[in-house]
Design brief:
5-stranded mixed beta sheet; alpha+beta; 22 strands
Length: about 450
């Protein structure tokens, strides 16, 4: 069941940075603001220039704020699968209350006991996802709160990532003037958003074909089984066109966008396009079929690498097949080529949100959906992870600027207990508090009418 309120998502890609603001009302998600700006300071999904990336994030947030009519103070940031590790964990605590009724703080404490698992200094816990709770030996409990017991156990999965990547991500977002609310693992959010219940249970693979990289994530039995990143994407197709035809990158990008075809058999061998070639005063005519051969070679190379790893992990024969998302999957013929390469059922996922029915927005949509659909127990677990990591590291400090630090009080036992977070809607304030609230239908119509201006 979705939580009511406003939720945000920030997708930092190699080619573009996207921000989305949505409101959940009675379980329905309504997109009220979205932006898409060119990315700077990012290579292969990793931030390499904090200042440049921060400026691009600031621009994307500003556009989304303008369209949504609110000020974004906190944002949920997507983390790519770079060097992601998944490990099982478990924790156990006695239930201390006199009534023996399990409360929020007991769930918080059992999660923290699971976080005592030894993690190497160069890695950091990103998320802990509870799989089940056990109360006095009774297994398979999803939410133990309100139950009676003397011993509470939790079994789940810990997701860890490189401390350097996480530090740079937080620092960049905070440099843009925004507080990181949650760091969400993109492959986990993507598989939960893109795959249906049956595909998540019996198994399927999502391939996100981005600009600078291709991300693969396989899910089975409702758990993320495998993730990998290949540092090749749509930008490499552009580079290939530029190199082979000896034309500029801007011309190559235009050729890919307007005439690109991944399936050579579908391309015309008679229709031609004019290409400005370096060192020639006159444009050169190139057949669409020749252009398709250049495009197809790179796409097949990427998909062949993915196929080898999926076969090695025995994940190619999952019943749900393969689902393609991302800007690189939009090109005509990509689905047909993928079907030929993998030899299994392949389909293109198109988001069903009005106005952004484009696979390139699948990542940022999945972030907002993931946060909006988090259960109360998952929120408690995520807050426990955030609190523990905050105690382990120094906050990012910028001169002349306050750093957001969640407040905590000392309990009677002397250990820090984090205050419950304020309602999500309190994280966002209207840009004009005196202005009457607009009708959401009118807001949506105005927003979608100008979204891609």
């Amino acid at each position: 069941m979705a939580r009511n309120g406003f939720f945000t998502g920030l997708d930092i890609g190699t080619s573009s940075i996207k921000v989305m603001v949505a409101e959940y009302i009675s379980g329905e998600m309504n997109v009220i603001g979205v932006s898409n700006v060119p990315s700077t300071g990012v290579k292969d999904g990793i931030i390499i220039d904090i200042e440049a990336a921060a400026q691009a994030i600031k621009a994307a947030v500003g556009q989304a704020e303008e369209k949504a009519g609110i000020t974004i103070e906190k944002i949920n940031v997507g983390l790519p699968a770079n060097l992601l590790q998944i490990e099982p964990t478990q924790g156990m605590i006695p239930v201390p209350s006199e009534s023996k009724e399990i409360k929020d703080e007991d769930v918080d404490n059992v999660v923290k006991s699971a976080l005592t698992k030894s993690i190497t200094p160069e890695r950091e816990v990103i998320s802990l996802v509870p799989e089940e709770f056990v109360v006095d030996g009774f297994q398979g409990i999803r939410d133990p709160r309100g139950m009676m017991g003397t011993r509470l156990e939790m079994r789940g999965l810990i997701y860890t990532g490189p401390t350097t990547i996480l530090h740079n991500l937080r620092k960049t977002v905070e440099r843009a003037g925004i507080t990181v609310e949650n760091i969400i693992i993109l492959p986990l959010a993507m598989t939960k958003s893109v795959l249906n219940e049956g595909e998540r249970e019996f198994g399927a693979t999502v391939i996100d074909m981005g600009g600078g990289q291709t991300t693969v994530a396989s899910m089975k039995s409702q758990e993320l089984q495998y993730t990998n990143i290949y540092t090749e994407g749509g930008d490499y197709i552009t580079k290939d066109i530029s190199k082979v035809l000896k034309t500029s990158m801007s011309m190559a990008e235009a050729l890919k966008f307007n005439f690109g075809q991944a399936n050579v058999a579908e391309a015309s061998s008679t229709d031609t396009v004019k290409v400005d070639v370096v060192g020639s005063d006159e444009p050169v005519e190139v057949t669409e079929r020749y252009l398709a051969e250049i495009v197809s070679a790179r796409i097949r190379h990427i998909l062949d690498r993915v196929k080898q790893d999926l076969e090695r992990g025995r994940l190619l024969d999952l019943p749900g097949g393969i689902v393609l998302v991302g800007g690189g999957a939009i090109m005509p013929g990509v689905v047909e080529v993928a079907q030929e390469v993998f030899g299994v059922n392949v389909k293109l996922h198109v988001p069903n949100q009005v106005g952004i029915r484009n696979p390139m927005f699948a990542n940022v949509i999945s972030l907002v959906e993931y946060v909006g659909m988090m259960s109360e127990v998952e929120v408690i677990a995520q807050n426990a992870v955030a609190g523990e990591e905050l105690l382990r590291r120094k906050p990012v400090d910028f001169s002349g600027k306050e750093t957001y630090i969640p407040a905590y009080n000392e309990s009677k036992t002397g250990s820090p207990t984090f205050e419950p977070h304020a309602p999500v809607s309190d994280s966002y304030r209207s840009k004009d508090s005196d202005r009457p609230k607009r009708d959401y239908g009118a807001k949506l119509r105005g927003f979608f009418g100008s979204m891609f201006d």
